[in-house]
Amino acid sequence: MSASIDRAFLRVAVLYALVGLCGGIFMSASHDHALMPAHAHWLLLGWVSMFLYGLFYKTHPAAKTKLATAQFWLANIGAILLCVAVGFIVTGHPKAEPGAAIGSLFVLAGMILFAIQVFRGTKA
Ligand code: HEM
Ligand code: HEM
To answer: Which atom of ligand 1 is nearest to the CA of 37?
Structure first.
């Protein structure tokens, strides 16, 4: 999977965009903006971040290693867990908080791996 990690990131990014945009349209149509934090993070943690990761791997093919695959799974499991849990929390289900907490730690772990990739990939 490492060899096609750029494609995986770019493809998954547009799926997050579709989820986030549907949430935005649902909020606008219903005049109920409760889902705003979930909408914002589906789009920023999902669509924007995943697409940026994909572009990085496209332009730095040497970084397409097992570390990239690990980063893919941490970023995606974290983003989905965080966004779904936030959606529950803001609609009156505070029991979902541990899901958001675990998701955010996955997101952070993924970003630590990505930071290593960027520092390695941008060595002079
Ligand atoms: C179909 C397109 C979209 C619709 C209908 C939509 C709708 C909305 C609505 C209704 C809100 C709540 C506003 C409020 O209560 O103050 C909101 C907030 C937000 N949206 Fe969207 N949105 C769309 C696309 C996007 C995209 C593409 C992004 C980012 C890539 C985005 C990022 C955000 C962010 C960050 C907020 C929170 C803003 C704040 O903190 O006040 N939205 N959106
Ligand atoms: C570990 C990952 C993250 C966590 C735990 C987190 C948590 C939060 C929290 C608690 C808020 C305040 C929500 C509220 O007051 O309703 C927030 C807002 C916001 N975050 Fe994040 N965030 C994360 C990642 C990101 C990333 C990567 C971006 C952008 C690329 C981002 C963009 C925003 C924006 C634009 C807002 C204001 C819109 C809103 O209130 O929903 N966040 N975030």
So the answer is: 37
Taking CA atoms, 69 is separated from 43, 45, 64, 98, in Å, by 22, 17, 8, 25
Among the atoms of ligand 2, which is closest to the Cα of residue 39? 41
Q: What is the rounded CA–CA span in Å between residue 124 and residue 119?
A: 10
Q: Residue 8 Cα, ligand 1 centroid: separation in angstroms? A: 25
The residue assigned the tokens 């920023």 is: 44
* DSSP assignment letter at 11: H
pTM of the model: 0.96
Q: Which of 23, 80, 12 is nearest to 50 (CA)?
A: 12
pLDDT digits (tens, 9 = 90+) for 81-96: 999 999 999 999 999 9
